Amino acid sequence: MKNKPKRNVIVGQSGGPTAAINSSLAGVYRTAIDRGYQKVYGMLHGVQGLLEGRYIDLSDHIKTKLDEELLKRTPSAYLGSCRFKLPGISEDRAVYEQIFNILNDLEIDCFIYIGGNDSMDTIKKLSDYAIVTGSEIRFVGCPKTVDNDLALTDHTPGYGSAAKYIGTSVKEVIRDGWSLETAKGQVLIIEIMGRNAGWLTGASALAKGEDCDGPDAIYLPEIPFDVDAFVEKCRALLKKKRSVVITVSEGIHTEDGTYISDMGNSASYVDAFGHKQLTGTARYLCNVISERIGCKTRAIELSSLQRAASHCASRVDILEAYEVGGAAMKAADEGESGKMVVIERTSDDPYQSGTEVKDVHRIANDERLVPREWITEDGTYVTNRFISYVRPLIQGDVAAIMVDGIPRHLFVPGYQELL
Amino acid sequence: MKNKPKRNVIVGQSGGPTAAINSSLAGVYRTAIDRGYQKVYGMLHGVQGLLEGRYIDLSDHIKTKLDEELLKRTPSAYLGSCRFKLPGISEDRAVYEQIFNILNDLEIDCFIYIGGNDSMDTIKKLSDYAIVTGSEIRFVGCPKTVDNDLALTDHTPGYGSAAKYIGTSVKEVIRDGWSLETAKGQVLIIEIMGRNAGWLTGASALAKGEDCDGPDAIYLPEIPFDVDAFVEKCRALLKKKRSVVITVSEGIHTEDGTYISDMGNSASYVDAFGHKQLTGTARYLCNVISERIGCKTRAIELSSLQRAASHCASRVDILEAYEVGGAAMKAADEGESGKMVVIERTSDDPYQSGTEVKDVHRIANDERLVPREWITEDGTYVTNRFISYVRPLIQGDVAAIMVDGIPRHLFVPGYQELL
Q1: What is the tens place of the pLDDT at every residue in A350-370?
Q2: Domain boundary among B239, B274, B308
Q3: How far is CA B40 from the centre of its chain?
Q4: B-contacting residues in A 251-310 (Cβ below 8 Å)
């Protein structure tokens, strides 16, 4: 393999977008070009788009170093995303044959997939199929997820920027509450992403500092949620302060597994992986507080704002995302397959990290939750250990490239219509 | 008056907080000190707190130039806000006597009130009472409101920063939608503040540029809202694109005055001025789209995030807010009373502005709406004239003072308990 001329690379993005996933794409592209590959294709909407023959030549999009910098600062998945679940090899060989035919037609040597748990499942299956069929194409996964729930890696690119945005916005909203004059007090509930893992919701504790108390309580999905205890907590807090701010994960549920969001009448939507789209947890709890305590309430859902907030990205995160993209490309170039790049933290203070390559079979579909001992005993806050874990990941800024007062993103005319 | 030694100043904040209202406070403080006043008091929670004898000496809070810079970057009303409506002088003289007794005890020469329409009403009544009773205390208003609905001024401090945040966040969320792969498409509805005036919602058009289409439709409260026409608009848009993003004002209502937010089952709350607190417009419309079109929907309310987003403040806005605070203090120092400072735009391109002083009787309780000709004929977008009005107000950034990865705000230990 070493003596064959290098041919082409294809890269895709999958799962929920983040503020850092395009920095990984830039890292893959730069390393592929630097290592002498001819073309770097981008599959549009991941494997799903690839199956429909939809892809671009990334050199039509990244023409200058400035374009590369813009790409690092562009939120969302530049290539479009998908939630396509590959069937098992024994279930449907035809789809694998189709994918490999396309890859062979494009003369692909390396296939890089940037995504979360579901994407690593795709890497696992495709690399297995390559072994079974004797294909020399290498398949390497590059981690991303705002949820930070990927196993084996210290953390995932995308999480740090979302955590920085959450810490910043929650702090601003807490301060906003200080201005309030209301005799009965107000309970503000902020709903944060994270279906089963409370990493993002826990990051709201970053608001806490010398100049801010932080949220008054933090409810993660790792701990069963008790509505009555929650109401009593609010009641007690309102005796001490006028403006109570509480952060909750979208995925909090009671001991018996009932999602709080399902207790209201929220519309629900199930994706291709059978994941339920959750909405309305904060609003439901506001209604409960309003009825039982009678004070003013306000619900805020950070919704897709939190994963798209490139304007508030963490420098550590954007750089690590770039490095991880580069490391995935390097691993594939050096003959690795069925692997995922992970981030290894070598020191907390000063923060130091590096990348490693791990077997994707050990990773796929494992959800990493917040350790029980990083949550306080009563289950309503995160501990200092949690804070010292996340704090290094939000350091530094990535100055947006401002045009007319608004951050500029990478864009090629007509591209949106292709997506 | 000129030969009397200068005594003290008191300043208050009222109404909904903004990202710039504390920059005006810093401007008042700096100018008062520079002009030789002894003490600058801050009333806590405006006139309401003053009546309860709650105030601070601002020099205990702003001890250094760094503190002043931090104050300019601190969102919310540093002094706390209120929505206290002064009765007419003939209705309740006692409350006026009480206020003037407090002011006289504190040896106040100048009373500066930073706020919106309701606050200017307070300035008007207090200055009238001063004339009636021969008091030499001067009362000057300093404009602020994210809503930008104050009459006689070209725009109000606070609006530019909120507009910049809205343009930035809407652009990020639109881009987030590009990543989406869904056969039926998605309609995302973003709800923006503005009860009767569409200035903030219109600012979502700032997302539009060479790299972004901007929102697909913009609904302001100035134009009666037709639910059926809205559904048809969405249906037509979904034929052209996968991800439809629409911005709506919280205050949109039908021809007969029914608020869209009231069509759902949202909790409603009426403040001291009889203003209804609106929630749930976007969510209600999502439910309608979901039922009638059957596609995926997502509702985002920018809620208090949009008025508290100091991390995304506009430099023009923060500097103008500071200037306006200084100009209010200067006017009061020079003997003006019953006046409000306004911003006069002298040029659009290059943008130039200055301050003037106007009679508060001409201003109070007048709401300035978006002119009909700045909205497209079909009522679903703003025109270029609107954009060229708002664009200069979002220019430039105010670098946050970052500590541990999160913006630092001004804070004095124990202060929160006083508020």
Answers
A1: 999 999 999 999 876 678 999
A2: B308
A3: 24
A4: 267, 269, 279, 283, 286-287, 290, 296-301, 303-305, 307-310
Expressed as residue numbers, the domain containing B85 is 8-157+310-367+396-418
ipTM, interface predicted TM-score of the complex: 0.95
B256 belongs to a structural domain = yes
Residues 361-390 of B with CB under 8 A from A: none
Number of domains composing chain A: 2
CATH code of the domain in which B191 resides: 3.40.50.460
For B194-211, the pLDDT digits (tens) are 989 999 999 999 999 999
* Model pLDDT for residues B41-63, shown as the tens digit of each residue: 999 999 999 999 999 999 999 99
CB-CB contact of A28 with A328 (8 Å) = yes
Question: Is A247 within the bounds of a domain?
Answer: yes
Q: Which residues of B touch A408 (CB under 8 A)?
A: 209, 211
CA A135 to chain centre: 31
Report yes or no on B283 lying in a domain.
yes
**Is the CB of residue B397 less than 8 Å away from at least one CB of chain A?**
yes
**Number of A:B CB contacts under 8 A?**
209
Residue type, B274: G
Does A396 touch chain B if contact means CB atoms closer than 8 Å? yes
Full DSSP string of B88-109: PTTT-HHHHHHHHHHHHHTTEE
Please indicate, yes or no, if residue B380 is contained in any of the structural domains: no
Question: What order do you get walking across the sheet with A39-43 strand by strand?
Answer: A55-57, A39-43, A8-13, A108-115, A138-143, A339-348, A351-359
* Residue B1 to chain A, least CA–CA distance (Å): 35
Tell me the whole-structure pTM to 2 decimals.
0.95
